Amino acid sequence: MGIDQPQLEAALGAIVEPELGLQLGGTGMLREVKTRRHRARIELALPVAAWPGSDELADEVHRVAMAVPGVEEIEFDLTVMRDDERAALRVALRRNMFGAAETDELEDAPAGGHEGHGHSHAPAAATPVFLAPDSATRVIGVSSGKGGVGKSTVTVNLAVALAKSGHRVGLLDADVYGFSVPKMLGTDHDPIILGDVVIPTSAHGVKCLSMGYFVPDDQPVIWRGPMLHKAIQQFLTDAFWGQPDFLLVDMPPGTGDVALTLAEVMPRAEIIVVTTPQPAAQRVAQRSAFAARRLKLSVRGVVENMSWFTGDDGTRYELFGAGGGDTLAADLGIPLLGKVPLVAAVRQGADEGRPIVAVDPQSETAQAFIAIAERLASLGPARVYRKELSLR
Question: Does the reported pTM lie above 0.85?
Fold first, then answer.
C-alpha cells in the first residue's frame, strides 16, 4: 500500500508555523507535496532566507510526514519564496489582520515584497481585528509613576508567565525613549518585513515589537508627541499580531504622551500599576493611576515589586519599607495582584535576556509572577468601551 497523498497534504497543511501562528496550508509555504510508492517529496518555501526557526519547522514537517501511513522515505527541499508568493502571503496576512472588508484595497495596494529589517509604512491605518470592540484580546498597559521600580521587568515576566499558561501573548514596548524589552526578553532576531507588514519577533512564546529593533542601542530617540503617537499606531496597524489573548504594553514612566495615545488608539485598554513598598514611590504611582482614570481607562490592579529580600538565614528584609502596594490598592479601590521579592537572579536574567519565569519557574520570584498572571487573567476583561474613540 502506497502513501495516501491527500492525507499527507492535510497533515502537513495543519502544522502551525510558530512565527506566524498560522497553519502551513494557509501560508503558501507548503509549495509542493508529491508521492511515489513509499517516498514523499516535500518542498517548503520560506518567506525570507533568514526565517526564524526554519530548522525547527523543517524537523516538524519531517516528523509529521513520517507519521503518515505508508511514508518510509522523504526527500525534503527548503527554499525561499518568489516575489509573487511573498506578495500573496502579505495579502493573506493583512486579510487576517483587518478582515475581508479590506480585500479590494489590499489587492490594489503595492505588494512591496522585499525582505529585510527596518520599518515600513502601510497605505492605510484601519483598525486591526484584535482591537475591534468585540475582540476577545485584552490590552494590558503596565504603568508606573516613576522609573526604577522594575516596570519593564514585571511586564516581561508577566508576558512569559501568561504564555507559559497557554495564552497567546503579544508585548508592545511603548517606552520609546527608554526601550529595554528586547534585551530583557532575549529575542535572537529582528522583526521581519514583508512589504508593509511587520512580523514581530518572538521569544518564550511571546511576540514582541519595540523601537529597540529599529534604532541602534546607543542611539537616542528625540521625538515630539505626534511622532511618538504615529510610531505606536504603526506598531499596531503594520504588525501581524494575529489574534492574541493578551497584548501587554510596557508604558514609559509618568503620565505623558503614551498614556494619551493608549487612550485614543486602544480605548479598551486596562491598566495595572507597578510600585515599590516605598511610600514615595506609592504616591507617584497613584498619579499614574489617576491619569489613567481621567482618560477613562480601567485601572485593574497593583503589583508591588522589590517587596523584600530573603537573606541566607531565611529572614525577610524589607529594604524599601513596607505597605506601599497595599496602601495604593486600598486608595484606588482595586486589588493588590501580588508582591514580587527582590533577588539578584531577576536583575541578572534581565541583563542576559533570560526572564526568571522562563529559566527558573519554580523559584520564589517566578512563582510570584505566575500567581500575578493567573490573578490578572482571572479578573476577566474590563467592561468599559467608548465608541467615540477609535483608531483612524
Answer: yes
